[in-house]
């Protein structure tokens, strides 16, 4: 069984009711009562994980109504209190009750802008974000026009610290670049503490350190990253069975998703299509139907692909997981790749995918970058089998273990882009959720041209 399989175990209805209604104290009391009984080990894990989830919910839904209104007014032009109250009463703002008090999700305002055109138009412009998008778009336009791929030498630093330290000894894992596919020449520059770098073969590569929770932990590194044109057939190593199998609780070939596959292929026999055509059909479905939206911490969802396929919204990782699951169901090996979207102007966490096509080997597919450019069709198609060079990836495995293995719950049980920490003395209950991180781009230099090839504008490079 995979490490998160217990999420398939049922919760008692009374416990679910307490959590949904925000009666966390009653929910904790109920869990304590249930744990007094003899239970299968996985059920015990499920119940303990629910305690962790409630802590995550409290951290995620952090703003009182008064605090949320101040954010709303700051985010949107001409915002009024009456308008704000109307929106939350209509369910258009994300909030929950916690012990009878209303709390709003930390990015409720941004999601309103993602979901409603009126508020997107009224949102105050983040000039830095627009500049980063323009920089990426110009690179894609250049690749579509000339096919001349470039390489970059990047130096970056990630720093993490605990928001409420108690001078306890902690273990820390920070993401570190892998050296394969489009990434090479990885070099550790410096670290805040004595550290151990995980082997490149580990699916989620990290730098491991130990210290006190009132200290800042950082790692600085350099790497070379290459723009990736799928038709060049650069990476032809064969997939493994893990690239085609289910991986509960999220990559599951459920009855609902099996019906969805039939819908995507219009009830045709998809086995008569080649793998390129199958992957493209799935890509079109996701990028043309799913809208980008911030989500809660991944640990709060029982089945991410089904969530995306029923709400038609999700962030980069949610869209990637739906695509990976549907591709594997359609007989196409698919895997995870994640780390950062990084340009000279800054960096932020990002997830995308790789698929294996018989004719070309492994090629990249970025669902959210493609879907976010559906008004610019050549760019949408570009991200099917091609990738810009503004990347750092540390992970090629979803739901992979760290080295050395983490004992307590992870802030993100499935991926690692901004680091993890745990308290040494508390073993399995030593999880840390009040963690903040900062990514700094220290150098971003263009290198000589790697190779030349044209991008096929009709189907995105292959």
Topology summary:
Layout lengths: L12 H9 L2 H12 L5 H20 L2 E2 H11 L5 H9 L5 E4 L2 E4 L3 H8 L1 H6 L4 H20 L1 E2 L1 E12 L6 E7 L7 E9 L3 E3 L8 E7 L4 E10 L1 E2 L25 H10 L10 H15 L1 E2 L11 H8 L1 E2 L1 H14 L4 E10 L2 E12 L3 E5 L1 H5 L5 H6 L3 E2 L3 E5 L24 E4 L11 E12 L4 E2 L10
Parallel strand pairs: 12-13
Antiparallel strand pairs: 1-3, 2-3, 4-21, 5-10, 5-20, 6-9, 6-19, 7-10, 8-9, 11-17, 14-15, 14-18, 15-16
Helix pairs in contact: 1-2, 2-3, 10-12, 11-12
Q: How would you characterize the overall build of this protein?
A:
The protein is an alpha+beta fold and 462 residues long. Helix content is 33%, strand content 26%. It has helices at 13-21, 24-35, 41-60, 65-75, 81-89, 108-115, 117-122, 127-146, 255-264, 275-289, 304-311, 316-329, 367-371, 377-382; strands at residues 63-64, 95-98, 101-104, 148-149, 151-162, 169-175, 183-191, 195-197, 206-212, 217-226, 228-229, 291-292, 313-314, 334-343, 346-357, 361-365, 386-387, 391-395, 420-423, 435-446, 451-452. The strands form seven sheets. Strands 7-10-5-20 form a four-stranded antiparallel β-sheet, with no helix packed on it. It starts with 12 loop residues before the first helix and ends in a 10-residue tail after the last strand.
